[in-house]
Amino acid sequence: MKHSRNKFGLSDRTSSVILVIIALLLIVIVAYPIYYVLIASFSNPYDVYAGKTFFWPSGFTLRGYQAVFADSNIFRGYLNSAKYTIIGTAFSVVMLYITAYPLTQRDLPGRKAISLFFIITMYFGGGLIPTYLIVKETNLIGNMWALFLPGGVSVANMILVRNYFQNSIPHELIEAAEIDGCSKLKTFLKIVIPLSLPIMAVMVVFSMVAYWNDWFTALIYLPKPEMAPLPLVLRNILIKSSATAKQSSTISGGYAELNKITEMIKFSSIIVAAAPMLILYPMVQKYFEKGMMSGAVKG
Fold this sequence. Notes:
The chain has two domains: 1-61, no CATH class; 63-296, MetI-like (MetI-like fold). It has 13 helices and no strands. Helix content is 70%, strand content 0%. It is mainly α and 299 residues long. It has helices spanning 12-41, 45-49, 63-69, 74-100, 111-120, 128-137, 155-168, 171-179, 184-195, 197-213, 216-221, 230-247, 254-296. The model has no long low-confidence stretch (mean pLDDT 82). Belongs to the binding-protein-dependent transport system permease family. InterPro entries: MetI-like, MetI-like_sf.
């Protein structure tokens, strides 16, 4: 049986083998850093720096995780991050939908001008200080809504959602529903939303990752320690550990031991913060891929 050949003179089987090898190499390149941090979090930091943890943990220890979870704020940080992520994701997805869908309506007055207005904000912004002043004047300092309202709509994500609506939901279907007596709101709720679950999954993942990893916004707008999200709590633990190590530098052996713990905390903190998102992503991967491909097509 003869195998067809491509323009490079390779058979289909050979091409498939090469593509599989390239894909495996890319997987290793992407996944190995995460794996390395994971095994380093269970290893003696001196063995890590000595290159003894290339494939397996060396000097197995849980002291890094013990130091992280010994802080009484860690569980409160988890709860805060979960609350901020759930509320922020729901708010962002709703805002994206009610912003993107009207821009797909051909009879919307000034549709091109409104789209241009959104696009301009991708290139020009007021910056941190004007944003802070606005948040302060609206009495949102110390309020969790300061995490959501200033950046409630990501224009790049809004464009993805708009393109999905335009390319994946036939306009004729919308017109047929309206001819049958559906209002625009009912059409949006009963037809558009159920047919756009793939792009919704993409936006949920994007928003969840953004809110879960956000510590800088909380550092600026949430001065109360009890409101700190998990990344900010982990940052404070690391800073406290580093400061303690420096203060112990005059004690014989004290600095080396505390510095060792600080290095373990660095790796452990990354795993503690990333674990929820790493667990969640496989659950929505199939929707993520479909929605991303459809939303990225230019309409």
